[in-house]
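Slide 14.
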Amino acid sequence: MELKDKVALVTGGGRGIGRETCILLAKQGAKVGIFSNNPSESQDTAKYIQEEIGGEAISLNGDVRSEEEVNNAVQELQEKFGSIDILVNNAGVMSLKPFVETDVKEWDFIQDVNVRGVYLCTQAVVPKMIEKRNGVIINLSSIWGTKGGPDRSAYTTSKYAVIGFTKALGEEMKPYKVRVNAVCPGPVDTKMMEDLAPDVNKDNWLHPIDIANVIVDLCLPKSVAVTATAIEAFGNGRPVNQ
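Slide 15: predicted structure.
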């Protein structure tokens, strides 16, 4: 229970990596706000934490692209549990298609969720973290945020941006003892990937809990030395299928 009475906000917390992260944070004693644009998924995760773990959790509904909805969710969580100690920017989207087939609308959508969403959520919680001189922010990038690859130009661009943002903010927050790190998963067997590539061989792919373990470890006091960096996490398989 190393995070007892800490307050955590997890975006995209209703399923996949986000859900497993919420559950692990609750097992460590954190009070968890589960932010999702799918109310049934976030409510189900909150119910699991409350009934199966005996933890404290609240479902927060909204879109990470909306400044108003993000601010409302943060306010609701703070009114329920207190100021936020941990932010996990997990919500994200991906597409697999050639660059010439990626139109402006799709490009902007991916940047808005994966980059603007990270900015808005971080902007909403950082002032209180600075005031308290304490906080942890974990941003989900990707192994594709460290290298190029075909048919994913919009996604790769957004995930490179997440790493750049993480390193810049991490340096800026050092005087305030707010740690900022990125986690860069390799292929993970999630619903998003199943929808995108149902026929891909998933041998050696990671599971959501594997990435959740990395995220939560970075939130613990033992990781005080780690900030302004990106952690690659792709298990014992190849980092990407090529």
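Speaker note: The chain has one domain: 7-233.
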